[in-house]
Design goal:
315 residues, mainly beta, Immunoglobulin-like, 2 domains, 4-stranded antiparallel β-sheet, 18 strands, disordered N terminus, signal, Spondin_N, Spondin domain-containing protein, Spondin_N_sf, Spondin/Thrombospondin_T1
Length: 315
């Protein structure tokens, strides 16, 4: 039994190490939605004003691999999308994301509130790690109050198709417009509930009161990228012991560059440890005793802004 178990573990580790050698890159972004909802552009049909207590529901955010996974123009809204558009509730949408994660078509759900409460507001998903295997972003927020209206982005890819930034898009912004979920026939902000029967596909609102005009902007700010495609020894640095068995890693600098930060990432590109080197020492030891056994990516950043990465094995 022990021999069988050891063989199984050895096989898994071999396959895992082989997979990691060709693993995909990740990028860290901050994603900020800033609203511009105003009476001049989006005034009520009734009196050209905004409704009482204009606000936004929490921003529901997911990263995934297939286009149109959660909503698409012309398609009937899911229950999760309908609930966000009509009430701002996110629990059904979160359940849909959980099912997609279980099916390996999505990998994470995040949520952020808008502040301050009002027509002009903003919400941010800060320092989110995007994996190349799940490079598409979808998010939604209800225009509140309204019958079934929302703002959102559907399947926005953060991959650029170029070699710069390890293939990730540099910082950029998009204008956002208002969509009707097709589940309520109300025509104005304060219209009484009037369930659509039958429901119609999601569509952009080009008529009053939204008038097809921009109502918000989203900015995707690229913070950093990490490529784990190659794990050759880091040039100019000597990391030992590797594999680590003592809970301590030593790093010596063969070119006498000044190390500024050291970062350790999981196999999925999540930052799990960061060390700030206050005295810019060229030779140092770092404590990794709190990390579980496994394979990680060690990134060394120097004071010139240059960085090198290599595989780190902790036993």
């Amino acid at each position: 039994m022990k021999k069988t178990t050891l063989y199984f573990l050895t096989t898994i580790l071999t396959v895992f190490a082989s997979t990691l050698s060709y693993s995909q890159s990740t990028a860290n972004y901050t994603i900020t939605v800033t609203t511009t909802w105003n009476a001049a552009d989006h005034g009520s049909i009734l009196d050209n004003n905004l409704p009482n207590d204009p606000h936004w529901s929490p921003l529901a955010f997911v990263t995934h691999k297939n286009e149109n996974e959660f909503f698409s123009l012309g398609d009937i809204a899911s229950q999760g999308v309908q609930n966000i558009a009509e009430t701002g509730g996110t629990s059904s949408f979160q359940s849909e994301v959980s099912s997609a994660i279980a099916a390996n078509t999505a990998d994470q759900y995040k949520q952020a509130g808008f502040s301050p409460r009002g027509a002009i507001s903003s919400a941010s998903i800060n320092n989110v790690t995007i994996n190349e295997a799940f490079p598409l972003v979808t998010f939604l927020s209800m225009v509140a109050p309204s019958p079934d209206w929302f703002i959102g982005v559907n399947s926005e890819s953060l991959r650029s198709g170029s070699t710069s930034n390890n293939g990730w898009k540099a910082t950029y912004s998009l204008d956002l417009f208002t969509y009707d979920a097709g589940t309520d026939d109300g025509l104005d902000y304060a219209s009484a509930n009037a369930a659509s029967n039958p429901k119609v596909g999601v569509f952009m609102i080009n008529g009053a009161p939204l008038n097809g005009l921009k109502i918000a902007t989203v900015t995707f700010t690229l913070n950093s990228t990490l490529s784990s495609a190659s794990f050759e020894n880091t040039s100019g640095f000597h990391v030992f012991p590797n594999p680590v068995t003592t809970g301590t890693v030593s790093i010596s600098n063969l070119k006498n560059s000044k190390i500024e930060t050291i970062e350790i990432y999981s196999k999925l590109g999540q930052l799990v440890k960061q060390y700030l080197i206050a005295d810019k020492d060229s030779n140092l030891q770092i404590d990794v005793s709190g990390l579980n056994r496994g394979i990680y990516i060690l990134r060394i950043n120097d004071e010139l802004g240059l960085s090198k990465s290599q595989k780190l094995i902790i036993k």
